[in-house]
Design brief:
Layout: E1 10-12, H1 14-18, H2 29-44, E2 47-51, H3 58-72, H4 76-79, E3 92-94, E4 100-101, E5 104-105, E6 109-114, H5 142-167, H6 177-180, E7 185-192, E8 207-210, E9 216-221, E10 228-231, E11 237-239, E12 247-251, H7 253-258, E13 268-270, E14 278-285, E15 292-293, H8 297-302, E16 312-313, H9 314-324
Parallel strand pairs: 1-2
Antiparallel strand pairs: 2-12, 3-6, 4-5, 6-7, 7-14, 8-13, 9-12, 9-14, 10-11, 10-13, 15-16
Length: 328
């Protein structure tokens, strides 16, 4: 359960990543220390910084933010060439205030990408997300940079999830196979106008209060602009101040269910009070699209038999969110 944390912990996942392909990695003392820190962070804050991963080069982390900035500064007519609609499988660009959180338009623009879904791949469950991602022609290196970034974030997330699986008392591959061996992913590129931008607005919320939908999120945010805030048990908003070279990592709704509430999907929001335009490249690592998520028996036993009264088919959970998150 989330506590009255005052700061977000920093975890050097280097040992975990180095041994991440070895299912016996939990026997290594340095890996066990990382597992201990992951367990504490997931129990107490639901958020933590990831450093020392060595998987996604700093140059690539910077590059994807750079091309995101360049895209959002193109003329609107260019950005609308990849406009998101239901016919595009909800993939593509949304203008400022077209994204909605709990009924309120957000002060942001964005591009959404999903793992591509072929026709009939998930039956009726996946129909609205069927389609191919829309890639802009400019900047020229946009598509190549993003695809490499997604590939590497998927690998890093899998290894972090192996550490979390061990922290919960399972095998390293607990969240693979039928649960997440064929993981879905979502990437959302978000641009938040600066405070001084001449944009008519009724509020300054870049992204309203929410939890994430899946397993694990890797947030690659602009340096020197603090905008992401995380809510502690007392209702205080703790800033996720950018630390160069790190990801901000948080857990989502599906991991809360699987852990039987042992780990919390923590509420968070974004308010950009800086005069500078801010971007965030958010990568979401998810379960298999059609898997049923319900409390793991080992987590129920650790809770004395008390069972969290929640379960969900991940793809259904995602689709319901997608259908309610955008202006028609």
């Amino acid at each position: 359960m989330t506590t009255d944390f005052k700061s977000i912990p920093i975890i050097d996942v280097g040992p975990l990543v180095a041994k991440g392909d070895d299912l016996k990695m939990g026997q290594d003392p340095s890996v066990r220390e990382v597992i201990k820190q992951l367990d504490q962070a997931c129990r107490e804050t639901g958020f933590f910084y990831v450093k020392g991963h060595g998987v996604v080069p700093q140059t690539l982390m910077n590059d994807v933010k750079d091309v995101t900035h360049k895209f959002f500064h193109l003329p609107l007519s260019e950005k609308l060439k990849i406009k998101m609609t239901p016919n595009t499988g909800y993939r593509g660009y949304q203008k400022i205030k077209e994204n909605i959180t709990k009924g309120v338009p957000d002060l942001q623009e964005a591009i959404d990408y999903y793992r591509e879904v072929k026709r009939g791949m998930y039956g009726s469950l996946g129909e609205i997300l069927e389609g191919c991602n829309q890639w802009p022609k400019e900047p020229a290196n946009f598509k190549a940079s993003m695809e490499e970034y997604i590939r590497l974030c998927t690998d890093l997330s899998r290894k972090i999830m192996r550490g979390i699986a061990l922290a919960l008392g399972g095998s390293a591959d607990e969240f693979e196979g039928e649960k997440g061996g064929d993981p879905f992913w979502v990437v959302r590129l978000i641009g938040y106008p600066g405070k001084s931008a001449a944009i008519p607005q009724n509020n300054d919320i870049g992204c309203g209060i929410h939890t994430d939908y899946g397993l694990l999120t890797l947030i690659n945010q602009d340096d020197r602009i603090t905008a992401l805030e995380v809510k502690n048990l007392s209702g205080e908003w703790v800033p996720a101040t950018p630390i160069p070279g790190t990801f901000v990592c948080n857990i989502g709704d599906m991991l809360k269910i699987w852990s039987n509430g042992t780990y919390e999907a923590t509420l968070h929001r974004v308010i950009n009070n800086s005069p500078k335009y801010r971007v965030c490249v958010a990568y979401f690592y998810e379960p298999n699209f059609d898997t049923l998520v319900e409390p793991l028996e080992m987590c129920v036993e650790k809770s004395g038999g008390a069972r969290l009264n929640q379960k969900a088919v991940y793809g259904e959970h995602l689709v319901n969110k997608v259908k309610n998150n955008f202006v028609p």
